[in-house]
Amino acid sequence: MLIHKHDAALDDAEWRDFLKTHDFGELIVPGKDRDLPVVVPAHFLYDGDHTVLLHLAKPNPVWDAIAERPRALLSVFGAYAYIPGHWNQDEYGVPTSYYAAVQLACDVATVDDPAELAAILERQLGHFQPEGRHAPVEPGDNRYGKLLGSIRGIRLTVTDVRAKFKFGGNRTAQHREVVAKKLGDRGSSLDREARAYTLTRGERLAPEI
Predict the structure, then answer these.
(1) pLDDT in tens, 131-169
(2) How many other β-carbons are positioned within 10 Å of the β-carbon of residue 37?
(3) 162: three-class secondary structure by DSSP
(4) How far is CA 113 from the centre of its chain?
(5) 110: which residues sit within 8 A by CB, 6+ positions away?
(6) For the segment 64-118, what is each residue's pLDDT rounded down to a tens digit?
(7) Under CATH, which number does the domain 5-170 receive?
(8) What residue ranges in the chain does DSSP mark as E strands?
(9) Sign of the torsion angle spanned by Cα atoms 23, 164, 14, 66
(10) Alpha helix (H) ranges present in 46-110?
């Protein structure tokens, strides 16, 4: 991923905050001597530090790739929006894309112990279903316990992070204001998210431009 200086995360807090609200991504496992990596879309739970937890079905082809080489890239993106060239110029304006992207390079460990696997699921449920309304996930002769044998857990240990926030950091404050207004006028959920990044990052970049 190309990251110009003006698109780099302003600090670690920026990409960590992004992962708090963007918890679905693509787990990319290259394996060894493969023509193509295995790519799996999945919900995940990031602890805010160096650990990511998730689980996948046992028939998933990712397990063979992990066994070959226990390394992976977790790719997460959001706030993406097409920016027409004419928004701040004429019909010869150059269009671009705004987006946020975080890529976590990770060591991979699989989790098969029923108690550890149940603990991962409990933590994921606590994150994704905070209202509760589910039975405890625990091994044993219960409906959830009987399903544990159909899945495996994954624990990712983050070894490197690449983060990009491409929201007009190389343009003037006036340009960003025009784009932010037009994103607000267009008004999709992604436009609103991109607008927020354009404005908040612009405020922090302003002294440097």
Answers:
(1) 999 999 999 999 999 999 999 999 999 999 999 999 999
(2) 16
(3) strand
(4) 27
(5) 63, 66, 152, 153, 154, 155
(6) 999 999 999 999 999 999 999 999 777 788 999 999 999 999 999 999 999 999 9
(7) 2.30.110.10
(8) 24-29, 38-43, 45-46, 51-57, 71-83, 96-111, 151-166
(9) positive
(10) 62-68
